Amino acid sequence: MRFSKYYIKTLKEVPKEADVTSHILMMRAGMIKKLASGIYSYLPLGYKVIKKLETIIREEMDNAGAHELFMPVLQPAELWKETGRWEAMGPEMIRLKDRHNRDFILGPTHEEVITDIIRNDISSYKSLPFNLYQIQTKFRDERRPRFGLMRGREFSMTDGYSFHTTQECLDKEFNNMKEAYGKVFDRCGLHYRPVEADSGAIGGSGSQEFHVLADSGEDEIIFCDSCNYASNLEAARSKLENAPKEELKEASLLDTPNISKIDDVVNYLKVPVNKTVKAMMYRDVVNDDIYMVLIRGDFEVNEVKLRNLIDTIDVIMLTDEELINAGLIKGYIGPYGIDLTNIKVIADNSILEISNHTAGGNKIDTHYMDVNYGRDYTANLTGDVRSSKPGETCSKCDGQLQSARGIETGHIFKLGTKYSISMKATYLNENGIAQPIIMGCYGLGVTRTVAAAIEQSHDENGIIWPISLAPFIVDVIPASLKDEVQMNLAEEIYSSLKKEGIDTIIDDRDERVGFKFKDADLIGIPFKIISGKRASEGIVEIKVRKTGESFEINKNEVLDKIQELIKKY
Ligand code: ATP
Ligand code: MG
Question: Are 242 and 359 in contact (CB under 8 A)?
Answer without folding.
Answer: no
